[in-house]
Structures are given as structure tokens and as C-alpha cells.
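TICKET #2291
ISSUE: user wants both folds in one file
ATTACHMENT 1:
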Amino acid sequence: MTVDDYIAAYPAEIQERLQQIRSIVFEYAPEALEYLSYDMPAYKLNGRQLLYFAAFKQHIGVYAMPECMEAFERELATYRHGKGSIQFPYNQPLPLDLFRQIVEFRVWQTANAPKKK
């Protein structure tokens, strides 16, 4: 199964949102490695996990690491979120500008993380 297969398995309106997220990832991280992990689209950059996303019954879940949740605490206040996850409900527009900021932050983090030994 590929990321294309994953996205194609959903109704058109959900596919559109998943493609928007995917496009933003490649806008800010064109060299990111795209693959499936934990049965969801995943991206690696600079040898580090960038983020994951997945479609669920009522929302799209984005998994962008705990530091991201801290950095965007105020912006995420209106969304259900956990230590490293955010839920974007289908009954609300996808906050594309916020998602761009999150991806840009994660790209910066992966570029500036200490080198693995």
C-alpha cells in the first residue's frame, strides 16, 4: 500500500483534505521521505521523523511531536490535542495557515536537532 492508495480509500471530501496536508508537507519539505508507518502517511526529513497524519471517522489526526504542541499551544487551544497529536474535525475548515506554520516549525526542528551518534 502507498500513500496514494491510503488517500484514495477515503471519500472525495476527505481525500481533498488529506491531499492539502500532503501538499503543504512537500511545499516546506520537498526532500522529505514519504512512506506509511503505523498504517498512516508519514514523513522523514534529515533522518528524523517530521510528522504523521491519518483520517478518522470525525477528524484528521496530525502527529507532529510534543515540542510542536508546546510551540503552538495558543493556536491549538480550540482543537482537541494531546502530547503530540492534533485533531482537525471535518465539520470545520482545515486551518491551512496553522498547518503550514506547524510543518515549517517541524522542518526547522529536524534541521537543528542534535546529530544522532
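ATTACHMENT 2:
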Amino acid sequence: MPYQGGARLPAERASKLGHLDVLKSELVNELVQKFEKTAIDQSEEEKFKRSWISFDSTDLPLRLVFSVDGSIQPVRSDQYPFRELCFVKTALLRLDAVAIEKLDKTSPHPLALKDLLSESALYHATVFPLKNISFEELNNYHAIRKIIYDSLKDPSLSGEPFETLKWLSYQKWQDQHLRSPSFQCPHCNEKIEGLPYDYDESNCEHCQKEVFLTDMLSFHLDMAEDTAPQDVPSAYMLIHETLLLFTGIRHFWNNKTLLEKCLFIKDGPLTLRGQYSKLVPNIRALFEFAKRNGINIHLFGQEKSGAFCDHLNLLARFAPAKTLFLPSNAYIRTEIKHSPEHTEEYGHRTNYGNKLFVKINDYHHMVLSIPTGDYVDSQSLDQLIGLQKILSTLPMLLSQKHEGALLPIELANGIASLSTYPSARILKVFAGLT
């Protein structure tokens, strides 16, 4: 590993002639000669083609489209000891699918975009101290706990994301007065058997110190007393994106007719990892409850990178237009994740949507995640909630500006994203870290 640059001296650079010894190595030359290029033969190509199923997109499309995206931007001071902050921004966009279809998909007119986005976007912003910054006589550990609690109650959004957190945590759609999921106390590390129904905050049953409902998400497990990794604002961004999207679902929950005309789109997979996955069983329970009561919640996430997108790029060239492929758990484990057979089923603890490969045309193929309710191994398309309506709406949402792009996600990203330049430089000056 090279030495890193500092305020006085530059970083260590890699050797420009280091490859010569590699090229002269007898072992390396012998091994390279034994490598063979793996080619897909015709029988393998036919197998890939048979995996894809034609789909029909002639249903009436969904009219209201909600998309969510987020961005983080860390900034660091110029002088030692380095102080670090991280800004987070998320956005929820509401669009009319018919209006989207009328836009020029390659170069939409700025005035047309302005009309489309008029009064249709909500955004949220907050900031986290990561290193060498104090907060009202609190160390970073407790400061970030309080920041998360206050940020989810952001007055600019009328505290709606926090109300959605309560709706999901206590499964309020069931009217059973359930406790929140259990979690580890941020003060004494003992297990708390969940907060009482509808509580914003309470006291630990062991140490009697104050705990927040947001502590149930367990951000504190990723923090030390005086520092926090960038994973914390990243996880907050993902949680807030999820809560923003489900705020729309909660808003329409009592108007089922209107809810079934909405499409909710998340940038990224439908997943919450690590300690944050405590919300996943409750989210699955919501979709299962809705499915059993004949209510379709149309939601999907789109992945833009990663192992699934790489695998789709391999498969899509063999697939005709308007086809899809539903990978089973065994297929994901062996062909994509390359994990042993004895491992746990893919996404059993972390995912609230199953993967689906979709090819609409030669320029648009994408990896989607669609909820199923309770966890199931993908074997039947009927298990994917609202699939037919989603497939009928997708062609209206396509963008020609990027590979496999959807305009609602593209527009949400334009609102939520924080660029390295000039945003990072401006935020650095704003925070007084220059």
C-alpha cells in the first residue's frame, strides 16, 4: 500500500517499471500460456434464450409515478487534525406518466421539464459530524443519535418520514398495537424488547436511560464515541429513501382505489442490510397483508450496477425484445453470486423484493426488484405483486439519455445528487472547513 498524501508532502506513487519483473517471471508466463478464453457455445446460447419469457404490456398503465433517490457528499478540512462532515440529501418526485410519455426522451425541452416538475418534488437535507467535531457538549456517538431522530422529524416534511417509520415499526395497518422490533440499547448494550406501541421515545428497561424509536434501527452499532464511519450517513440515506417512498404508500393507504393507480420506484434494490434489516420483516408483512386483502401495491427498485447488472449484460444479447427472466434462488447462488450450496437463501434476511431481468428493447434492459409479500424462492411470475401493471407502465418511462434509464429515476437523481464539483467545494466553505 502506498503512503497517503498529507498537507506537507504528496502521496507515494506506484512504480512505472514494476510490470517488467512480472513479465519476466517464468511462473507467470507458464500460467498465462495455460489460460483459455471461455466462449459461449451455441447450445449454451440456446439455453439462455429458452430462459426468457415473452410478456404482454397492453394493460392500462399506472398514472401516478413516485420516484426516490438520494446522495451523500463528505467534506474534510484542509488543516490537521482533519475535521470531517457528511451532507445527505434525498428527494421524492411525483410525476404524471402520461405527461412523461409526451416528453422528448433524448433531449427533453427545459421548459417542458420545468412544467413537469412544478410543485412535484420534496427534498430533505441533513449533515453528520464524522470526526473531530463536537455537538452541543455531546460526543459524536450521542450527537448522531439525536441528529438522526431530529432529521427524520424534519419540519420541512412535516415529520412525515418519522410517522412512516412508526407506521412500519408498529405495523399500524393491522390495528393490533404491536411493539417495535427489539434492539440493543445504545447506552448499556442490553436487549430492549421493542418500544411500546406508538411511542416516539421511551426509557431502557435495564438502565432507564432515554432511547429513541430511531435507535431501533441501530445506527449506533456502527459508531465509536468520537468518530463515525461514512457508512452511517450512507445507511441513513438508504433508510430515508425507503421511508420517503413508503410515506406515499401510507398516504394513499386509506384510499385503495387511488393507491392501485400509483407506481412507486426506488433507485437501487429493495434491500436493507445489516442491523437495518430489522424493518424488512415488517415491510414484507405489509405487502403480504395487502396481497391477502386484494390490494396491489405497485413498487419496484432498479439496480444500475453490481453483479446482477453484469450478469444481465451477458444474458440480454441473447434475449429478444419484450421478454423477461425470473432467476431462482439456486440460479442466483450458483450463476451470479458463486456461493456454496449450503449458504442461506439469497436475500432471506435483507431483501423485500425478488430480482427480475427485463428486456424491453435492444437499448433498454434492466434489473428490477419487485415485492412478493412473504419471502419466496422465485419460481412463478404470479408471486411478483402488480407485475403486469408495472410492465405496462415501463415503456412510457424510458429515457434515451443513458443505458437502460428510466426518466423518473433520472429526474429524481437530478434533484437529489450532490456533485463533487462544485457542490463539495461550496459545502466545504459553507461548513467552515477551508
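RESOLUTION: both attachments delivered.
EXTRA DETAIL ON ATTACHMENT 2: The two ends are 28 Å apart (CA to CA).
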